[in-house]
Specification:
This protein has 287 residues and is an alpha/beta fold. It starts with 8 loop residues before the first strand and ends with a helix. It has one domain: Divalent-metal-dependent TIM barrel enzymes (TIM Barrel), CATH 3.20.20. Strands 1-2-3-4-7-8-9-12 form an eight-stranded parallel β-barrel, surrounded by five helices. Strands 5-6 form a two-stranded antiparallel sheet. The radius of gyration is 19 Å and the shape is globular. The chain is built from nine helices and twelve strands.
């Protein structure tokens, strides 16, 4: 089980907005910082992170752990990651359920894993090593994908849920990634959410994507698509109130545009639970 922290609604801390977070306190519940941007370094980025951490919760989100790779875990990376975690004391720490390293080389991409028992055992063992090293649970995020493996013996949803259960880690459920992969591979995105263990899901991500016609590309650019907003309300109904982040990493807009997207998520969350509560009250009166 992963304890769910009621953080509310957040946005990513990106360099374009550093000045505004130093000079004022924008209305946002929490911020996500990309771990690698602050590891083993100092200067302005770390000063900004220290400042915003004084004002609101921060979560650290990594992109290069490579939990599914077969190369040994990077000891230098883990040391610098833990030093940053000890300094920031983040509300949550996350990375991706993927691989990206091979024979000492890093692909700088989040590559999907085959969905089978061998991969589950491998990932669970490595999550155990990481959590022991950090002294805390981590979250793993589902990635968007454009290929499948003949070696897969189960769905991505079954694989993700089983890794979280066995490793006793959290799930960072990226709803845009689910939608992108569902369209690319022809599965039902709502069935994916139905398969998630409620007690392990601790965070949602929402982002934009590019529709090329024959394939969807996860870009983290632009406004969240209407279909992804619909999937968000479905996830809220099934999984409850979960801290939600708006990711906008390419063509980063002005801060007000980003915060408005976060407010839209907050409004949809409120409306979803108002509707659920009204339905429950009606059912109680009917009995």
């Amino acid at each position: 089980m992963f304890p769910r922290v009621d953080l509310g609604h957040g946005v990513g801390l990106r360099p374009r907005h550093y000045g505004e977070f130093l000079e004022r306190q924008p209305k946002v519940d929490w911020l996500e910082a990309i771990s690698e941007n602050f590891m083993g370094t100092g200067g302005r980025p770390l000063a900004v992170l220290d400042k915003v951490r004084m004002d609101r919760p921060v979560v650290l989100h990594g992109v290069s752990l490579g939990i599914g790779s077969v190369d040994p875990l990077d000891e230098r990376y883990l040391k610098e990651w833990k030093q940053l975690i000890d300094r920031v004391q983040p509300a949550m720490v996350s990375d991706h359920l993927c691989w990206g390293r091979h024979r000492g080389r890093y692909s700088h991409d989040l590559l999907p894993l085959p969905f089978n028992e061998e991969a589950i055992s491998h990932v669970v063992s490595r999550v155990g090593q990481v959590q022991d090293r950090l002294g805390r649970q981590i979250l793993l995020e589902n990635v968007s994908s454009y290929l499948t493996y003949p070696a897969s013996t189960m769905s991505e949803a079954e694989f993700t849920a089983e890794v979280a259960r066995r490793a006793d880690c959290g799930i960072l459920l990226d709803l845009n990634n689910i939608f992108v992969s569902a369209k690319n591979h022809g599965f039902d995105p709502r069935a994916y959410i139905d398969a998630m263990p409620v007690e392990q899901v601790a965070q949602f991500h929402l982002a934009g994507h590019f529709d090329r016609g024959d394939i969807l590309i996860d870009t983290h650019e632009g406004h969240v698509a209407d279909d992804v907003w619909s999937l968000y309300t479905y996830a809220l109904d099934k999984l409850g109130r979960v801290p939600t982040l708006i990711e906008w990493d390419t063509g980063v807009p002005d801060l007000e545009t980003l915060l408005a997207e976060s407010e839209k998520a907050r409004t949809l969350e409120f409306e979803t639970f108002e509707r659920v509560n009204a339905a429950n009250e009606k059912a109680m009166l009917g009995t």
